[in-house]
Amino acid sequence: xxxxxPASMFTLALPATASLPRDVKCYFVNSVxxxxxxxxECGTQAQRYLPAMTGIIVGGTAKGAEVTAxxxxxxxDGSDCVSGTNMLRATTTDLELTDDYYALDGDGxxxxxxxxxxGANSAYLLKSDxxxxxxxxxxxxxxxxxxxxxxxxxxxxxxxxxxxxxxxxSGNPAPGVYIDARGNKSLIR
Length: 189
Known about the structure:
The structure is a single chain. The strands form 4 sheets. Strands 2-7-4-5-13-11-10-12-9 form a 9-stranded mixed β-sheet, with no helix packed on it. It has a 3-stranded antiparallel β-sheet with strand order 14-15-16, with no helix packed on it. A two-stranded antiparallel ribbon has the order 1-8. About 0% of the residues lie in helices and about 45% in strands. The chain contains no helices and 16 strands. It has strands at about 1-5, 10, 20, 25-35, 35-40, 50, 55-60, 65-70, 90, 95-105, 110-120, 120-125, 140-145, 160, 175-180, 185-189.
């Protein structure tokens, strides 16, 4: 799949699981509140796999640049890219909506639309999915979480540690960020 970026920031949804190049910044919408939209960076792998029919925000590309997503080997479902709640809805065909929805414009803001057509291979926020009281004409992206968030100094309790590539650390691990078998993050200095 090759998509020509309509702006420096746009939404994307594909019909099949696809690998996104590491230099392409992509995010999913974790929550929406009165202060705006909170997004989380997708995956931290060398290649990011976008699950089929999952809406994401692609950013950091030049308008008109080509973004190429490739179909990975069988057995890869893309679940490593989007972890947690993703409030974006996806469509891979042109979709006519009568409900109110928010669409991302090239200015990096979600604008309220009162029905209309959503283009193929894109994503949107359905207003009825948002918390009660959200009625702004424009929603700004107000918080971006990159990679791992909330690292705390860990204590040695015997749980095995794994590096960010998933390899088990042995002996005295080198300084860095590690995750134990229970999913707790640790920083070793």
